[in-house]
C-alpha cells in the first residue's frame, strides 16, 4: 500500500468506525458484530502506526465510542471511564503477560479474572453509605446522570451496611438476563412491534427512559467490578471487591484470583464452556493485575489501562450454503425475510434458518442466491448471519431484489419512511395476517377464549366460517358441527367460551383488536384516559400524545387505524355482538381535589395504594409518579422512599397521611 492509499484507507476506516460507534452507543442499533468492529479498529491502529502523519487527532482509536443523550444532565466524570484493550487469541494474551512481567520485573503476576458482561457501563457514587449519583459512560469523559433510573435496579442497594469509605465511586455493568429479555420481546411481538436485537440494547435503551417508574418495570440487573476511593485503603483489587461485597454490593461471584498466565488460561477455557449455562450473556473475560501499586506503576495509554485486558470469546462461526430466502408475514403484516440454510451444527444445536430482519440488513450483507454465508452463534441463543463468503460467490451471481408483493396474497408491499420493515397492507384478506389476528384475539391476555386454540382459528378461517374477529360472535353450533372431528360437546364448549368472552373489560377488547403498537400496556393507558371507543376513534394525534406514555408513532398509528371505514365498521360489528367498549365507569364522586397533584409513596393502613389513587382521581385530583415543584401533596405511608422524602423537604411539599386525605375530600382540611 503506498502512502496515498494508506491515507485514503485511514480516512475511510475513521469514518466507518465513527458511524459504527454512533450506531452502537447512541442508536443502540449496531449493524456489525463486535468482532468485525474490532477487526476494523485493529486495521486502523496498524495503519496509524505506520503512518502517524495521517491519523486524525480525533481518531476512534483514541476515544471511547459513546456520546451523551439529550434530556439528562451531563457531567464530567471524576476519572475518565476508559475502555479496555481487546484480544481474541491467547498469543496476544501471552504478550500482555510478558509485557507486564517485563515492566514490573516480576516472575509471576497475580491477576483477577472476571467475566466480561455484555451490558452498559455505569459509575455509581456512595456518600456516607447512601447511593447519591449514577452516571452513564457517555463518551468516557462526560456522561449522563441517570441516578433515579439506576435506583430502580432491585439488586443495587440504596443504603450500605458495614465499614464503607465515606465517599467512593464504584463502576460496573447494567445488564438484562436472557429470560427477562425474552419476556420483554414477547410483549413487543404482542404489540406488533419489532423485537429488540439483544439484551444489551434493551438495557441501554431502558436507562434512557425519562420515567423511572417505567424503568422499574424492566428486569435490569447489575454487577459492580471496580472500586475507586481516594484514601487507597485496599492494597489489591481483590480486597476491594471483597470489601464491596461486605457492604452489600453485588460483585460478580464468578471472579477468581489467578496466579500467573496458566491459571488465567484455565479460567478462560472453563468459562468458554460454562458461559452457555449462565442466565446472562458474557462476551469474554477481563483480566486485571491484582496489586494496586503495580496497577499504578503500569499506568494507562490514551484510551486503556496497561494493567488490564479483555479476552473476547470467539463465537462459533460456520459457513454453510444459503438454500433460499423465504418471507414470513406476521399478524400485523410485517414481512420478515428468513435465510433457509443447509443445516449446520453450531454450539451443539442444528441451525437451519436465520432471520435476515429486513431489506436493509439484506442489502448490508449483500446476500445473494447461490451464496455461502457465515452463520454465528455466540452467548446468545439466536443464530445470526454475519457475512457472505465472497470467495465462493458464483461469477454469474446478481444482487437480490427485495420482494415487492406479499408472498401470501400478492398485494403490493408498503414501507413507511424511516422504517426498516416492509408491510403487506392487505390486513383484511391476507391469510397469515387474518389468522394471526384471530389467534391474537383469543389469546390469554386478550379475550382469553380458552375453548378456541390456534389450530381451530386456522380451521375456521379455511372453512370460511370466521374471516375477521367479529365473526366469532356469529358462529352457530351447526357451523361447527359440520367440521371434521367435531362433536356436540366440543362444539357447545366452543360456543360457550366465545359467549363468556363478552364480559371482558374494554381494555382487553382494545388490546385484542390487534392494532399495531397497541400492546397490553398501551391499551390500558388508552382505555383509562379516554374511557370509551368513541373518544378513542375521534381522538387527534395531539390528544393522544398528551396521554402518559403515548408517543407520536403510536398516536399516528391509532389515528390512521380509525380513519379507515373498515375498522369503524369492525367496531360496530363487535359492539353489536355485545362486547365492552366502555371502561367501567369510575364514578366521579366530587371535585374537592380538582387542580391538586399528589404523589403516593409507602404502605398504608386503611387503604391500598390503588384504592388511594382511585380516591384521589374520583375527586378530581391527579396522581404523579415523582415529586416535583408542581406536586401539591406527598401522601406518605410507612417505608416511604427516602429520595421522595428528601425531594419533598427540599421543595417544601407538605406530607399528608391517609386520614388527612379523607379530611380533605370531606372538605374540612
Ligand atoms: S474494567 C479501566 N471489568 O467492558 C477498567 N470492565 O471494554 C475498565 N466490562 O467499559 C473496566 N465487564 O463496560 C471491567 N469485569 C469487568 C467488565 C468490564 C464488562 C465492560 C465495561 C468496560 C468495557 C471495556
Summarize the structure in words.
The model has no long low-confidence stretch (mean pLDDT 89). This protein is of the alpha+beta class and 669 residues long. Strands 2-11-10-3-9 form a five-stranded mixed beta sheet. The radius of gyration is 29 Å and the shape is globular. Helices cover 37% and strands 19% of the residues. The chain has four domains: 138 residues, OB fold (Dihydrolipoamide Acetyltransferase, E2P), CATH 2.40.50; 239 residues, 2-Layer Sandwich (D-amino Acid Aminotransferase, Chain A, domain 1); 146 residues, Orthogonal Bundle (DNA polymerase, domain 1); 69 residues, BRCT domain (Rossmann fold), CATH 3.40.50. Bound molecules: 2-(butylsulfanyl)adenosine. The site of 2-(butylsulfanyl)adenosine has 14 residues, from strand 3, strand 8 and strand 11. 2-(butylsulfanyl)adenosine binds next to strand 3, strand 8 and strand 11.
Secondary structure topology:
Elements: H1 3-27, H2 34-50, E1 74-76, E2 85-87, H3 90-104, E3 110-117, E4 120-127, E5 130-136, E6 142-144, H4 147-151, E7 167-176, H5 178-190, H6 199-207, H7 212-216, E8 220-228, H8 237-246, E9 256-259, H9 260-274, E10 282-289, H10 292-298, E11 308-312, E12 316-329, E13 335-346, E14 349-355, H11 359-365, E15 372-377, E16 384-388, H12 431-442, H13 454-462, H14 477-481, H15 488-500, H16 506-512, H17 520-530, H18 533-538, H19 541-545, H20 552-563, H21 565-577, E17 597-601, H22 609-618, E18 622-624, E19 633-636, H23 642-651, E20 655-656, H24 658-665
Parallel strand pairs: 2-11, 17-18, 17-19, 19-20
Antiparallel strand pairs: 1-6, 3-9, 3-10, 4-5, 4-7, 7-8, 10-11, 12-13, 12-15, 13-14, 15-16
Helix pairs in contact: 1-2, 12-13, 16-17
This protein binds 2-(butylsulfanyl)adenosine.
2-(butylsulfanyl)adenosine binds at residues 82-84, 114, 116-117, 121, 173, 225-226, 286, 305, 308, 310.
Amino acid at each position: 500500500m503506498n502512502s496515498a492509499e494508506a491515507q485514503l484507507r485511514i480516512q475511510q476506516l475513521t469514518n466507518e468506525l465513527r458511524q459504527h460507534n454512533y450506531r452502537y452507543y447512541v442508536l443502540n442499533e449496531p449493524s456489525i458484530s463486535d468482532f468485525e468492529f474490532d477487526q476494523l479498529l485493529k486495521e486502523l491502529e496498524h495503519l496509524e502506526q505506520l503512518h502517524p502523519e495521517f491519523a486524525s487527532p480525533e481518531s476512534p482509536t483514541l476515544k471511547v465510542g459513546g456520546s451523551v443523550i439529550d434530556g439528562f444532565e451531563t457531567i464530567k466524570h471524576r476519572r475518565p471511564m476508559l475502555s479496555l484493550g481487546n484480544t481474541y487469541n491467547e498469543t496476544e494474551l501471552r504478550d500482555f503477560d510478558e509485557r507486564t512481567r517485563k515492566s514490573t520485573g516480576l516472575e509471576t503476576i497475580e491477576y483477577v479474572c472476571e467475566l466480561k458482561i455484555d451490558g452498559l457501563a455505569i459509575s455509581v457514587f456512595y456518600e456516607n453509605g447512601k447511593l447519591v449519583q449514577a452516571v452513564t459512560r457517555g463518551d468516557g469523559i462526560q456522561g449522563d446522570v441517570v441516578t433515579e433510573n439506576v435506583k430502580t435496579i432491585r439488586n443495587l442497594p440504596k443504603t450500605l451496611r458495614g465499614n464503607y469509605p465515606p465517599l467512593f465511586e464504584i463502576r460496573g455493568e447494567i445488564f438484562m438476563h436472557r429470560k427477562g429479555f425474552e419476556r420483554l420481546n414477547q410483549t413487543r411481538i404482542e404489540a406488533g412491534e419489532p423485537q429488540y436485537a439483544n439484551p444489551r440494547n434493551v438495557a441501554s435503551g431502558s436507562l434512557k427512559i425519562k420515567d423511572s417508574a417505567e424503568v422499574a418495570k424492566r428486569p435490569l440487573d447489575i454487577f459492580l467490578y471496580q472500586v475507586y476511593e481516594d484514601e487507597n485503603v485496599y492494597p489489591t483489587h481483590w480486597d476491594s471487591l471483597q470489601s464491596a461485597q461486605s457492604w452489600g454490593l453485588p460483585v460478580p461471584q464468578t471472579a477468581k484470583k489467578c496466579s500467573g498466565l496458566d491459571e488465567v488460561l484455565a479460567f478462560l477455557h472453563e468459562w468458554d464452556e460454562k458461559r452457555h449455562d449462565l442466565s446472562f450473556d458474557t462476551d469474554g473475560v477481563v483480566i486485571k493485575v491484582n496489586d494496586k501499586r503495580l496497577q499504578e506503576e503500569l499506568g494507562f495509554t490514551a484510551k486503556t489501562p496497561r494493567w488490564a485486558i479483555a479476552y473476547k470469546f470467539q463465537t462459533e462461526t460456520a459457513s454453510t450454503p444459503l438454500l433460499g430466502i423465504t418471507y414470513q408475514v406476521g399478524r400485523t403484516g410485517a414481512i420478515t425475510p428468513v435465510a433457509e440454510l443447509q443445516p449446520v451444527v453450531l454450539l451443539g444445536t442444528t441451525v437451519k434458518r436465520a432471520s435476515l430482519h429486513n431489506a436493509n440488513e439484506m442489502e448490508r450483507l449483500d446476500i445473494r442466491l447461490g451464496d455461502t454465508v457465515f452463520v454465528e452463534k455466540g452467548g446468545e441463543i439466536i443464530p445470526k448471519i454475519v457475512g457472505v463468503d465472497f470467495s465462493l460467490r458464483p461469477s454469474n451471481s446478481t444482487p437480490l431484489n427485495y420482494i415487492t408483493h406479499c408472498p401470501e396474497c400478492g398485494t403490493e408491499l408498503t414501507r413507511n419512511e424511516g422504517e426498516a420493515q416492509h408491510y403487506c397492507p392487505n390486513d383484511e384478506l391476507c391469510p397469515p395476517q387474518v389468522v394471526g389476528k384471530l389467534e391474537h384475539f383469543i389469546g390469554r391476555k386478550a379475550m382469553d377464549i380458552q375453548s378456541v386454540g390456534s389450530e381451530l382459528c386456522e380451521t375456521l378461517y379455511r372453512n370460511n366460517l370466521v374471516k375477521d374477529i367479529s365473526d366469532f360472535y356469529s358462529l352457530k353450533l351447526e357451523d361447527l358441527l359440520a367440521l371434521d372431528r367435531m362433536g356436540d360437546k366440543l362444539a357447545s364448549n366452543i360456543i360457550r367460551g366465545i359467549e363468556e368472552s363478552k364480559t371482558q373489560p374494554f381494555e382487553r377488547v382494545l388490546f385484542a383488536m390487534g392494532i399495531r403498537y397497541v400492546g397490553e400496556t398501551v391499551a390500558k393507558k388508552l382505555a383509562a384516559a379516554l374511557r370509551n371507543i368513541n373518544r378513542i376513534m375521534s381522538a387527534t394525534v395531539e390528544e393522544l400524545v398528551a396521554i402518559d406514555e403515548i408517543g407520536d408513532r403510536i398516536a399516528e398509528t391509532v389515528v390512521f387505524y380509525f380513519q379507515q371505514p373498515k375498522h369503524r365498521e369492525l367496531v360496530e360489528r363487535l359492539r353489536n355482538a355485545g362486547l365492552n367498549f366502555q371502561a367501567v365507569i369510575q364514578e366521579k364522586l366530587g371535585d374537592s381535589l380538582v387542580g391538586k397533584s399528589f404523589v403516593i409513596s409507602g404502605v398504608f393502613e386503611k387503604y391500598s395504594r390503588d384504592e388511594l389513587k382511585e380516591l384521589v382521581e374520583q375527586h378530581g385530583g391527579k396522581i404523579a409518579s415523582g415529586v416535583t415543584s408542581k406536586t401539591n401533596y406527598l401522601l406518605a405511608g410507612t417505608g416511604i422512599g427516602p429520595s421522595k422524602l428528601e425531594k419533598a423537604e427540599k421543595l417544601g411539599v407538605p406530607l399528608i397521611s391517609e386520614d388527612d386525605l379523607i379530611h380533605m375530600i370531606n372538605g374540612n382540611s
